[in-house]
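Give me structure tokens for this 334-residue protein.
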Amino acid sequence: MSARDIDWDGVRLHVLTGKGGTGKTTVAAALALALAAGGRKVLLVEVEGRQGIAQVFGIPPLPYEERRIAVAPGGGDVYALAIDPEEAMLEYVEMFYGMRRAGKALNKIGLVDFATTIAPGLRDVLVTGKTSEAVRRRDKSGKRVYDAVVMDAPPTGRITRFLNVTSEVAGLARIGPIKNHADLVRGVVASPETAVHFVTLLEEMPVQETLDGIQSLHAAKLPVGGVFINMVRPELLPKTALDAAMKNDFDPGELALGLKAAGLADGPADASAFAEALAAEITEHARRTSLERRERRSLAKAKTPRYELPLLPDGADPAGLHELAQAIRAQGAA
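Here you go.
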């Protein structure tokens, strides 16, 4: 994909998962921008019907069609698609049975619900199938339409079943178009062209879910990608000060004298109150830093590439997305 030395050279489908609240959609959007930089064309796919991509980019809700939503540094384009299972089902009926008009009529009486009741998991196959089709698609000259596809996928707790459901459906339908379709999807999802990345925070529950998710993907023989550690806050104090605060060796009295000497307090009482409040903040910062260091060590056990993305003080607005995309590229993830 690129002459740059990147960790995921050759990967064309990037699947992003993560525990709720970790900023999965934001990171997926930033990764799409990073991959598109320098003149490439990337498709960002949403599969859960939340219109999260539209919210992140500050645009109207996305229809069921691919449309350009952003320009990356260097002139690349990011397209987006919010996949609708009912529309995907109609495409499936037309593709394999030539029955789109009939499919529209059947849809009025609950075609999707009927089909997914008969074949549990078919809805997910339709969603992943649409994404896989975008990965394989070529134009009339034989060139790939998209250089990469990024999927904003379901949360970590569901990701293995979501990606592996093609095997279940293929087992239910042992012959015919449904099995062929499921096999094609599996051929993309389980291939070296796919990487499943995790988004986490440096907190105990998201980190544990990430480690469990990585283990689950390995067991299912699905391709594990990297770990994006989101909303990372800098360590603001020297290690000696943090260690002293953790050991309760931090002296607020000395801090009060320093504040007074620096002219940051009007008198002894004011300096003492200021020092007590500041000491409490330092202690809290030290505790959080210790926790984050511990969670980093836990993530290191997974032996997958890790990328740290900064906490955005102004939130994930378009400027913030470009900042995250730059951080992703600087660390060799795109």
